[in-house]
Amino acid sequence: MKIRAKITASLFAVSLSAIVLVSIVSFHFARNALLETNGKHLLALASGEKNYVSYVLQAWQDEISLITSRTQLRMFFSEHLESPAPRHIARMEEILLDATEASHAVKKIGMCDLQGRLVVMAGDPDLVHPTCGNFATESVTETVVADVWMSDAGELYALVAGPVLMDDEIIGIASAFMSASELLGITQNYTGLGETSEILIAERTAEGHARFLTPLRYDPNPGLTRIVRSDQVNVPITYAMLGKGVGLIGPEVIDYRGQSVLAATAYIPEMDWGLVVKIDRDEALKPIQSLLLLIGISALVIFLLITVIGFYVGRGITGPISRFISILRDVRDGDLSRKIHIQSGDEVGYLASSFNEMLESLREKTAQLTDSEMQQRAVVDSIVDGLITIDEHGFIQSLNNACETIFGYTPEETLGQNVKMLMPEPYHSEHDGYLKRYHDTGERKIIGIGREVKGKHKSGRIFPLDLSVSEVSVKDRKLYSGIVRDISQRKAAEEEIKQANAELEEFAYRTSHDLRSPLVSSIGLLSIAEKAIHADDKDRALASLTHTQSSLRKLEGLVKDILMLTRIKNVDEDEETIDVEAVINETLDKFRHMADFERLDIQQELNFSKALFAKKSRIILIMENLISNSIKYQDLNKSNSFINISTYREGDKFVFRLQDNGLGVPKDQQDSLFQMFKRFHPKISFGSGLGLYMMKKSADVLGARVVFEDPGDGAIFKFEMPIEL
Amino acid sequence: MNIKSFMIIDDSEGDQFLAKDAIKHFDSNIEVLQAYDGQEALEILRGLPQQPDVIFLDINMPRMNGHEFLAEYETWENSTVVVIMLTSSDQERDREKSMAYRCVKQYFTKPLDSSTLEVVTQISLKE
Lengths: 725, 127
Prior knowledge:
The structure holds two protein chains of two kinds. Chain A is built from 16 helices and 23 strands. By secondary structure, chain A is an alpha+beta fold. A six-stranded antiparallel β-sheet of chain A has the order 8-7-6-11-10-9. A five-stranded antiparallel β-sheet of chain A has the order 2-1-5-4-3. A five-stranded antiparallel β-sheet of chain A has the order 13-12-16-15-14. Helix content of chain A is 47%, strand content 22%. In chain A, helix 12 runs antiparallel to helix 13 (538-570). Chain B is an alpha/beta fold. Helices cover 42% and strands 20% of the residues of chain B. Chain B is built from five helices and five strands. Chain B has a five-stranded parallel β-sheet with strand order 2-1-3-4-5, with helices on both faces. In chain B, helix 2 runs parallel beside helix 3 (66-73). Chain B is globular and about 30 Å long. Chain B starts with a strand and ends with a helix. The chains are: A alpha+beta, B alpha/beta.
């Protein structure tokens, strides 16, 4: 819009100044030309009329001279002067009459003697000069026009006086009254003079003023009474009376009417007359008005044209630019697919094609950037560890795919939220404080250091995380980037190792103690035996030796169990098909020799008919342990000690159940049942205390478990192992 | 003043035999009480009109071990009883744990012999 206005305004201004300039110039030019032309015309006229007036005056003089030079007239006049006789007057009258009739102009003519007495007169007797009467009063030496005047009737007359000569002697004066209407013909003939111009003739009054001789165009009646005073210097007639040659004055001179006129002036010296040919300035310059009008109309037309042109040209420029702008807006808003279609060969067109090229380049770069970003994204998403970026207030800016696996939340659920949602207490409440403290103090507690923390899964489960945080500064934003690794498994493994180590340590302690103890005892006991033998105390010696034996036997059993234990954990064994019933019977056979075996009631309810596919030695160990314990820990005070062995399938498990009514396990010991080196009955001293512990380890290897139940009287042990159906 | 009664709390019959033999040889008039674990010992001690002068206490016993026994026994009114640890364990932690009990005066490793008994007698008489 602005451009269009600018263009229109500039065109306007230019054209306006041009028009104004041209107007002024042509105005002046035209004016001067007109004035010059008119001036020339007036000068020509003035000059012409002046000559004509002179000619007319001369003609009158000549005409009268002709009459006065008539010989007969002069003879009769001279004779009359010598001897006046009526017949002379009659003869002179005759001649004069003849002359007046012959002449159109002469109206009356009279002759006077030198004393001024009228001798003869012919013509119109009523025609008199206002002041002179019938005669020119002054004597003349040659024929001159004495005066010109206008009668009351409005007719112009001239009085021409001339000498009457006889033999070169002036004997009298002739006075002729002539019609001066030729002068009127000069001044009253307005043809070719336009509408305002007129020719004026004025005589000088006795006071020196100018008096118009002929009627004025604008004031016909007071013809001979119109006087222009000589002090009116700016009036053309005054100029004329100055007696200079033909000249041009104006156009600022004012005529007798008060109008500005252009005038040419002339002087007729014979009569002391002034001649003015004048034209109103307005009339002289009238064409200029037309010019001005024409200029005005042209200007209007031009302005109109300019407005239209300016409008269209402007539009031609702003149109493409507006289109340009609208497409730029689309690009700014993200639409890179636009293209500008401007074909004009000018700069705008060039701009458009450059822009299109730039846009193309931008599209390419954006595509590259998108690809690169996608690639980066893919890499980030492919890493197993979680990558979370937060801003300095803790709000999550981005997370990779692994985070969903680790924390259980989808990106929509977490983006923009505060990262503390992924933390359990106390981290949850303290995180804001951590951020603030770092922000204020710059003290690094975790940034660049790495730490083990706890995370909270969507399900509420709390798990250990390895967290390392780094600081990212992008322009003026501070971001923190954290790598999280779910170390539950590692922790579990660590825990297992710790446990195993603790077990091992415990084991080492206990075994060293339990191995040493019987040895130390044996040494002491043998020394007593020795002393007893020296002292001939057979009973004491035998008692000693017996105790020694049992100590060493205990030692043997322990060593065996320890070796067995290590084998359970370390030796790998293939699974094989096991006949459960056969194994049980074999075990019972093995223990047949044990003390108090016969008094037991062995009950078997073997309902598991299939074969077991498992690691045989482990199964045997478990069964042997359970069965031998029942035998060992029978309650001798009971008369109906029994062992009930049953096998069955429960769901997807094989169950080996053994119930007895023996000594059972004291209530307060039941929790530590399967720990190593636990013995629950002091008097029954053989047994390393590792039996149940070994059984548990064997069960672990089989993926099974051993369970104890207290039936109140005795014990129930169940071995449960998952099987394939 | 003589020592009149000892108690031996040990789960090993062999060690009981050894200890009793040593004591009898030392002074045949001393009464020797025997218990095979902490629980049995408490039962016996509860029923006594008079606590023994010295108790020899093993650590590793089934049902109730030496430290568990001490934890209970210390709550009883028995300021004169001298408890001597007699154990196979030479672990420092066992020693420390044992000596933390007020009534435990010494910590010996097995076997019990006459020189040990001499020391024990002296300790007991001091109390």
